[in-house]
Amino acid sequence: MQKRTIAILGATGSIGTQALDIVSRYPDRFSAVCLTAHRSSEKLFDLVRKFRPRCAALNLEPETLPDDVRFCEWFFGADSSVRALCASGAQDALCAIVGIAGLDAVWAALDVCQRVLLANKEALVTGGTLVMQKAAERNVPLLPVDSEHSAIFQCLQARQGNPVRRLLLTASGGALRDWRREDMYRATVRDVLAHPTWTMGGKITVDCASMVNKGLEIIEAHHLFGMPADRIDVVVHPQSVVHSMIEFEDGAVLAQTGMPDMRGPIGYAMGWPERLPYDARPLDFFALGHLDFLAPDFERFPALKMAIASLKAGGNAPVVLNGANEAAVGAFLREQIPFGHIPEVIGRALESVPRAEIRSIADVYAADAAARSAAENAIRRCT
Ligand code: NAD
Ligand code: MG
Fold first, then answer.
1. For residue 197, what pLDDT is reported?
2. Domain boundary among 144, 176, 198
3. Which residue owns the Cα nearest ligand 1 atom 20?
4. Quick one: 74 and 120 in the same domain?
5. Closest Cα partner for 167 from 118, 214, 211?
């Protein structure tokens, strides 16, 4: 493999820092030429000192820029990630910004990069049809980083042209998997952020506890693999070692398994089609002893049902679901609403925003704005 230049958008986050761990293990294969973040300036300065990119960006301009990070070109402001990406000339982009805020960067990466490595699932949930169309038109591989989608992508390498009957997305069940419904309503931020098997950013950890994350992933899988909603199933699997599965028409099911470590799927996308060893712990079947598989509980996780319904409804519905969820999760993390109110906020937004088609990125942002405004109303009524 030739040395590749890569932009890490959302470099200070959980995915971004783990991607940089892979970069530092393979200095002869990767050069991180662009690093961007929202406002964690000190953390970004440290990464810039270590990885010495050509370009760096922060949405919030810091008061001062230390002398020892001035060697690279800096960009500030709301669209700074996109401007830094374009100026860096990176061959590949790892899109690891959280939320719909990362959609612009994915869109731009499809214009200027040879490969797009996608962690930012909200970009596909909201702009899915348009993003997939653009990737196909420009012939840019969109390599999944989300562990379930990476697992499916890996299993699909054995497809040999055969049709796939079903995708099976595994789910840990999140921090509240075994909680009673009445207790879940008042779960605290601390309860919800205690994820049993993965360490991730705050927003996705809340989404795991509400199982909105699995709903977003069904929509993501629908776009990435062209699979209709009724052929994507969720299997709750508390040990998180079966990362997802595909079922063929003869009933054969292929699974991709391994210890839960995001550097696996991140490294797979970075090195694709080569596998890049890192210090992964081997899967010890004897220590595991057994694996559990359970049906999802749609009563305790109503937002999962809403996400599936939004995909079936089509048009702006998934954008509304996503926007309302982002607003609700923000309010929950600020302790403005109880955890149990998140599905209610999403439900109210889905009811009150009229259905519309999505024909352009501008339509996506219009639906997102309408969803946030409906969600803010529902949040205010709660506080
Ligand atoms: P995080 O909160 O840890 O990091 C987010 C990163 O994006 C940070 O660097 C932050 O500075 C940057 N950022 C946030 N808002 C921004 C904005 N408006 N403009 C530019 N940069 C911005 O999040 P994370 O857990 O790393 O998740 C990133 C994405 O990857 C999410 O879409 C998430 O769903 C997806 N994902 C994460 C994991 C995981 O293990 N963390 C697994 C699968 C998928
Ligand atoms: Mg996932």
1. 81
2. 144
3. 38
4. yes
5. 214
Is the CB–ligand 1 distance for residue 330 below 6 Å?
no
The CATH number for 23's domain is 3.40.50.720
Question: Closest Cα to atom 40, ligand 1: which residue?
Answer: 200
Give residue-wise pLDDT tens across range 97-151.
999 999 999 999 999 999 999 999 999 999 999 999 999 999 999 999 999 999 9
Query: Which DSSP state fits 68?
Result: G
Please work out whether the CB of residue 149 comes within 6 Å of at least one atom of ligand 1. Answer: no
Q: Tell me if 125 CB under 6 Å of ligand 1.
A: no
Q: Which residues, 6+ apart, have CB-to-CB distance to 50 below 8 Å? A: 20, 24
Q: What is the mean pLDDT of residues 37-55?
A: 98
Eight-class DSSP state of 336: S
> Is the distance from CB of 35 to CB of 114 less than 8 angstroms?
no
Q: Is residue 224 part of a domain?
A: yes
pLDDT at 358 > cutoff 90: yes
Are both 207 and 351 inside the same structural domain? Answer: yes
Question: Rounded to whole angstroms, how far apart are CA atoms 9 and 6?
Answer: 10
Provide the 3-class DSSP secondary structure of residue 39.
Answer: coil
Query: Does the C-beta of 97 come closer than 6 Å to ligand 1?
Result: yes
Distance CA 277, CA 163 (A): 31
Say whether both 117 and 163 belong to one domain: no
Closest among 92, 140, 152, 144 to 123, alpha carbons compared = 144
What is the extent of the structural domain holding 62?
4-144
For residues 52 and 135, state if they share a domain.
Answer: yes
Considering only CA atoms, which residue is closest to atom 36 of ligand 1? 119
Read off φ and ψ for residue 100, nearest 5 degrees.
-65, -15
Q: Against a cut of 0.85, is the pTM above it?
A: yes
How does DSSP assign 244-309, residue by residue?
EEEEETTS-EEEEE--S-THHHHHHHHHTTS----SPPPP-HHHH-----B---TTT-HHHHHHHH
CA of 264 from ligand 1 middle (Å) equals 17
Strand runs (DSSP E) across the chain, as ranges? 4-9, 30-37, 55-58, 73-76, 92-95, 115-118, 142-144, 164-171, 232-236, 242-248, 253-257
